[in-house]
Amino acid sequence: MSCELLAIGCIAIHTDVPQAVRLQKMWNADSIMSVFEKIKPEFFPRGVRDEKQPDGVWQQYAVDGAMTKDEFLKSYNQFGGMLHTGNVQRYREASVETYDFSVIEEFLAKFTRLLSTHIYFLDQDRAMVRVTMHQAKDERVYYNYLVGRHIDD
C-alpha cells in the first residue's frame, strides 16, 4: 500500500505531464512506474538532505542509502507476491512459507530515507517541489514549490 501511495503521489505531483491524467484511474505501482518511465524518465522522487553553507545558503545533497526506483519496484513485486492470495495452483502445491523480516526492515529504512525530505523536478527542471514529511518542530508535512532558472543536480 505504501508503494501504491507513492506511485499515486507521483501522478498527483507531476501536473507538468499532460499524459499523467490518464494514469489517475490506475493503482498498480508497477504499471504506473512503467508508463511514467516512458513519458518522463526523471519522475521518481529524490531523497535529499539539507546543509547550511558558510554563506548562509542552504544546499541540498542526495541522501546515501535512499531507495532507488529499481529497489522500489523490486520490493513492490516481492511484497505483492507475499501478500496476495494467489490462484488455485498455489494452494494445490502449498508449502510452509517462511519470511525473512530483515527484508521489511531494510525496505522501511530505505523508503524512509527516500521520503523524509524529497524533491521532484517539474517543467523541464524549471520548478522543484520539495517535501518534508516530518518537520521536527511540529511533526507536520511541509512542501515548497520553487520556480526559477534551470535547477542543476
SSE layout:
Layout: H1 2-13, H2 29-39, E1 46-52, E2 58-62, H3 69-83, H4 88-92, H5 102-115, E3 117-122, E4 127-132, E5 142-147
Antiparallel strand pairs: 1-2, 1-3, 3-4, 4-5
Helix pairs in contact: 1-2
How would you characterize the overall build of this protein?
With 153 residues, this protein is an alpha+beta fold. The protein has a domain at 45-147. 37% of the residues lie in helices and 20% in strands. The chain is built from 5 helices and 5 strands; from the N terminus they run H-H-E-E-H-H-H-E-E-E. It has helices at residues 2-13, 29-39, 69-83, 88-92, 102-115; strands at 46-52, 58-62, 117-122, 127-132, 142-147. The chain has a 5-stranded antiparallel β-sheet with strand order 2-1-3-4-5. A hairpin with a 5-residue loop joins strand 1 and strand 2 (58-62). Helix 1 (2-13) runs parallel beside helix 2.
